[in-house]
Amino acid sequence: MEVCEIELPELTWLRHTVNKVPLDVLQNLVAHRGFHCIDDGISRPLENTFCAYDSAWSSGVRACECDIGITSDGQIFLGHDDTFARLSDFTTAAKPVSTLHSSDLCDITLKDGQKAVLLSTILDRAMTLAPGAEPPLLIIEIKHSYETTASALSSMLLENQQYRLHVPVVMSFSKSAVRRFAQDYGAQKIQVSTDKFPHPLVMQLTACEPKEDADFVDFDLGKGANEIDRLCSHIVDSSLSGAYIEFQHAMLETAGQNLLRSLCDRITVGVWSRKVVHPDNLEVAILLQSCGVQFVNTDLPTNFHGLCGS
């Protein structure tokens, strides 16, 4: 089994930070794309890589988030963009991953010396870290080739039942992707003879600003109770578990917090934030948790540590 051998000064910072975060809050934190540099630098591991997850889990972060797509031969890979051009100078990296064979994908060397990685590799690593401790968790966002990837992921989690110990949530901005996953997974799990392993929550990702895209769901907490009713109706009608909503500054105000609590009383809620634009610190994480939010994304910026104490 591969082990991350990168030792970076920021790993010491991460371990110190994790030790300062209250345990109940740490249970709700989700390291967005693993422990990584938001500016694609190499002072930390690159996003969606083996070391991004291994360093986070090994340092005490329980939950991470990843983005997935699918190769031409049906293998599920980790990657936010439809190419690896942003993270690698390799010629192959500029090609859409959906057109690449998995062997070509795994030959791509990234700027920090790591290789592009398959989802199975990351889940296998989570399994090796699990004995004797709470299992490391990986929240999975279906990012590319929506319905095809959703079906492949459904099959993977049902064929490899131990993986489900590590996957609490499957989500996507695409309505068709989450519906396909929910439908395929629901139909196939009837054939699974044991309920020993948990089944993932299926959640709709939303953003504040609407798009001219029928496959996209917008949600603006500031619009009040009617907006909450609209979102909850979509969740129920689609047989989903909840919504992973975009952070809004209204959540820092009493009225917005009351609305957020009412939403959390009805469905499972996660909150994601935009790097630099939104506050990303312990204080906000505690606030969101107090409102009932179960998953709080973070990029673990260096100012997160300052609010944890020295």
Task: Please characterize this protein's 3D structure.
- This protein has an eight-stranded parallel beta barrel with strand order 1-2-4-5-6-7-8-9, surrounded by six helices.
- The mean pLDDT is 92.
- It is built from eleven helices and nine strands.
- Helix 3 (50-58) packs parallel to helix 5 (119-129) and helix 6 (146-159) runs parallel beside helix 7 (175-189).
- The relative contact order is 0.12.
- With 310 residues, it is α/β, with parallel strands linked by helices.
Summarize the structure.
35% of the residues lie in helices and 14% in strands.
Descriptive key words:
35% helix, eight-stranded parallel β-barrel, 14% strand, 310 residues, alpha/beta
Count of strand segments: 9
Based on CA atoms alone, the radius of gyration comes out at 19 Å
Figure out the total of helices: 11
Rounded average pLDDT: 92
Distance from N terminus to C terminus (CA atoms, Å) equals 36 Å
Q: What percentage of amino acids are in beta strands?
A: 5-15%
Strand order of the largest sheet: 1-2-4-5-6-7-8-9
**How is the main sheet built?**
8 strands, parallel, barrel
Poorly predicted regions are none
Helix content: 25-40%
Please state the structural category. Answer: alpha/beta
- The geometry reads as globular
One letter per element, helices H and strands E, the order comes to HHEHEEHHEHEHEHEHEHEH
What are the SSEs and their pairings?
Blueprint: H1 9-20, H2 23-26, E1 29-31, H3 50-58, E2 63-70, E3 76-78, H4 102-105, H5 119-129, E4 137-142, H6 146-159, E5 169-172, H7 175-189, E6 201-205, H8 225-237, E7 242-246, H9 254-264, E8 268-272, H10 282-290, E9 295-298, H11 302-306
Parallel strand pairs: 1-2, 1-9, 2-4, 4-5, 5-6, 6-7, 7-8, 8-9
Antiparallel strand pairs: 2-3
Helix pairs in contact: 3-5, 6-7
